[in-house]
Design goal:
single chain; about 725 residues; alpha+beta; 12-stranded antiparallel β-sheet; 17 helices; 25 strands; elongated
Length: about 725
């Protein structure tokens, strides 16, 4: 049975000498952050007439009233993520936040009294807390929590709660709360944890936002300046520098969409606080309205099931219905009046109880539609937009379902990045067709390594073999080393997102010492069947010396059929010994011979096929994750791997197509087999590659790509049926 300890007055203070701060004047003014007294009153007045406001307020009221029915408890910090004390301190800040909102809106004194008592309890014990006992070696620790990040999140929410109730707290108690809790916690986060506070990273973002808002509430200009411009106030770190370094001009966040979802909350809320307190900074105009682009780009980085693409360290199935996006979309709408955000807000079904949430709720009430529009787009990466990027290729089929591909040629993404240069994801509407493993982690599940990232995150999930990309010599890109991977990024060769075809090509020249990788991904539909889009995938490896090349496809579903014979392994053994290969069971093996190999599987009620050109030396492997995993940490996801041995220059050419359907109610099946009847490389020289293909009952078509970067301004005009399409460097022609 887990023992719970309550901190009593003086328990730890008698043991440890706390830092001594000179008493500061207590704050006297009303709310300074994101909910003003006037808007709080308007929310109270308009709640019954607005569904979004009513639902949002009732949720906060229900949570707050439940908290008030229980005794205040501040346990001795003991557990890592997911443990009792960790979760209790999280619940405490949430309870204070909700109670403060209810007080601000209704004026109920019991809710303000609850927040006061809780804050006084924390002020009583926080100064004497040592670093957390479950802290991880060489990882920034907190006092209430095992990592400093959670400490900043606690302050982020709690200072907002205090902002709403502080005028109801007597001067002596305010002095205790501000000097013994908030100033000492801000000192711990910004001074004692100097490196994290000045780090260009999501941990740094939470830290500067929490301390900066504390500065506004306490009237401490030094705090806010350090938060905005860094500890030395020279602009080399701090909030503005984080906006400069972590986002591309298109609003793409270096660590990927999952962490962009997490970090967008402190970015947007602190920006709102800055605008309210220092409007002369014009923070919402900064870098050509960067914060608006950040929110829009983040929403676009979701599939049709509203889930963030699971690239880099990402927990799968996380949607934009999260708390972070409620605040972010509300603030973005308030500041930029972007009508395209209203469908997301209507889908979410609630708003933040803030100035921005009130404005958004009124606007959403008068709007129509709940479908967010996703489009094909090229998103740059890097502070100047020159470190590769993400291409989103989207086309509807006959039913309106989007075939949705993400081509990743972005930078490393710092410590949360994966070694997946030129990686590909594919969705058919909400269905994952070719997926990414994401992160190996059971977030806040204490039984699984304290809720931290598992060791398999490094040994498998980050490795190149866990992704849909090419691996040379069973070695991950950049040797699986973050520092080396952070030194360069892939190069965009060309992009065309026209009506008839979406095509992107990129090159990676440093993932391996003497190998150049390039990949072209094209999404199109033939003139004969424009309602059935598919993908042509051309992946080339070039070197002066022979290598083993593995093109990997991580698929979701059940194998249905192959065009080649294979041998099922009766005894499972790992595919390799290192770089993630040690975690893959080899479940089957085949040698298709020269021609084309077709691999077909069923996902839910739809069939999918990969048709790949092969030669006499091609080997095919079926794999499943789970080898070398004694604690059953890995999900048993399946893969299909195409291998070429002893090759200097090799081009993998594949067509990936959705087709047919399976109806379990009617017990009918339509078009369960691939429609590809021909796939050939019909022309190849040092500059151009021509791939000819034909679907059943259609004429042949040829896709021609320029394999080198187009430096001039040539424009190709080609007629397909009655349509003329044009672009630089690539084109399709009808045979």
């Amino acid at each position: 049975m887990k023992k719970t300890f309550l901190l009593r007055a003086g328990l730890l203070v008698m043991i440890l000498m706390p830092l001594v701060f000179h008493a500061q004047p207590v704050s006297e003014k009303g709310p300074r952050l994101i909910l003003s007294a006037g808007i709080a009153g308007a929310i109270d007045r308009d709640t019954e007439g607005n569904r979004l406001l009513d639902r949002s307020f009732r949720y906060a009221e229900r949570k707050a009233d439940e908290a008030l029915r229980h005794a205040i408890e501040v346990p001795v910090p003991a557990d890592p993520g997911g443990g009792y004390t960790h979760e209790k301190h999280k619940k405490n800040y949430a309870d204070m936040y909700n109670a403060a909102l209810v007080f601000a809106i209704t004026g109920k004194p019991a809710h303000a009294e609850f927040v006061k008592k809780m804050l006084l309890r924390y002020a009583e014990v926080y100064p004497g807390l040592p670093l957390h006992p479950a802290r991880k070696e060489n990882h920034p620790a907190g006092k209430l929590f095992w990592q400093g990040l959670n400490e900043a999140v606690w302050l982020f929410y709690t200072i907002q709660a205090y902002d709403l109730v502080k005028t109801e707290i007597g001067r002596k108690d305010r002095e205790t709360i501000e000097n013994e809790l908030f100033r000492k916690m801000a000192h711990f986060i910004s001074v004692e944890s100097y490196e994290t506070f000045n780090k260009i990273h999501n941990h740094g973002t939470w830290a500067v936002a929490a301390v900066g808002m504390t500065g506004y509430v306490l009237g401490d200009r030094d705090m806010t300046e350090r938060a905005i411009k860094g500890s030395d106030k020279d602009g080399k770190t701090g909030f503005l520098k984080q906006l400069d370094e972590l986002f591309s001009p298109d609003g793409y966040y270096s660590e990927g969409p999952y962490y962009q979802r997490y970090a967008i909350l402190p970015f947007m809320v602190f920006a709102e606080a800055i605008e309210e307190n220092q409007p002369a900074l014009e923070i919402f105009e900064y870098r050509d309205r960067l914060l608006h682009k950040a929110v829009v780009t983040l929403l676009q980085l979701t599939n049709s099931n509203n889930e963030f693409y699971p690239i880099n360290d990402a927990i799968k199935d996380k949607t934009y219905f999260s708390e972070e996006l409620v605040f972010a979309t509300n603030i973005a709408y308030e500041r930029y009046e972007d009508q395209s955000l209203l469908p997301v807000i209507r889908q979410t079904g609630r708003v933040s109880l803030s100035n921005a949430g009130y404005a958004t709720a009124l606007a959403a009430a008068g709007s129509k539609g709940t479908s967010y529009e996703r489009s094909s787009r090229l998103i740059s990466d890097g502070p100047s937009g020159k470190q590769g990027g993400i291409a989103l290729l989207r086309m509807p089929d006959a039913s309106g379902t989007l075939l949705d591909a993400l081509f990743k040629f972005a930078s490393q993404g710092m410590g949360h990045g994966h070694f997946d240069r030129l990686g590909l994801l594919l969705y058919d509407g909400p269905q994952e067709v070719l997926g990414d493993y994401g992160a190996a982690r059971f977030l806040n599940v204490e039984a699984k390594d304290g809720g931290r990232y598992l060791k398999e995150n490094k040994t498998y999930a980050k490795q190149s073999i866990a992704h849909n990309t090419l691996i040379a010599d069973e070695t991950s890109h950049y040797g699986g080393k973050v520092k080396q991977g952070s030194g360069s990024a892939p190069e965009l060769l060309f992009c065309d997102l026209g009506e008839d075809i979406h095509m992107v090509s990129a090159r990676e020249g440093r993932a391996y010492k003497d190998i150049e990788l390039s990949r072209t991904v094209a999404m199109l539909a033939t003139p004969e069947a424009p309602e059935h889009p598919f993908v042509i995938d051309i992946f080339r490896a070039r070197s002066d010396t022979p290598h083993q090349y593995d093109l990997n496809f991580q698929y979701s579903g059940q194998l249905m059929d192959t065009s080649f014979e294979y041998t099922r392994d009766s005894v499972l053994a790992p595919l390799g010994t290192a770089n993630g290969y040690q975690h893959l069971f080899k479940t089957a093996y085949g040698k298709p011979g020269a021609g084309r190999a077709v691999f077909t599987w069923l996902r839910d009620k739809r069939f999918y096929s990969i048709t790949t050109l092969t030669d006499s030396s091609t080997e095919l492997f079926f794999t499943q994750a789970g080898a070398g995993d004694p604690d059953f940490n890995l999900r048993p996801e399946k893969g299909y791997l195409v291998r070429q041995r002893d090759k200097r220059d090799h081009v993998f050419v594949s067509i990936i197509e959705p087709h047919g359907n399976f109806d379990p109610q009617l017990e009918t099946v339509q078009h369960p087999g691939s429609g590809v009847e021909m796939l050939e490389v019909t022309y190849r020289d040092d500059k151009y590659l021509a791939v000819t293909f034909r679907f059943r009952n259609q004429q042949a078509h040829t896709l021609v790509i320029c394999r080198d970067k187009v430096t001039g301004t040539p424009e190709h005009r080609v007629t397909i049926g009655s349509k003329t399409i044009r672009w630089k460097g690539a084109y399709t022609i009808t045979q």
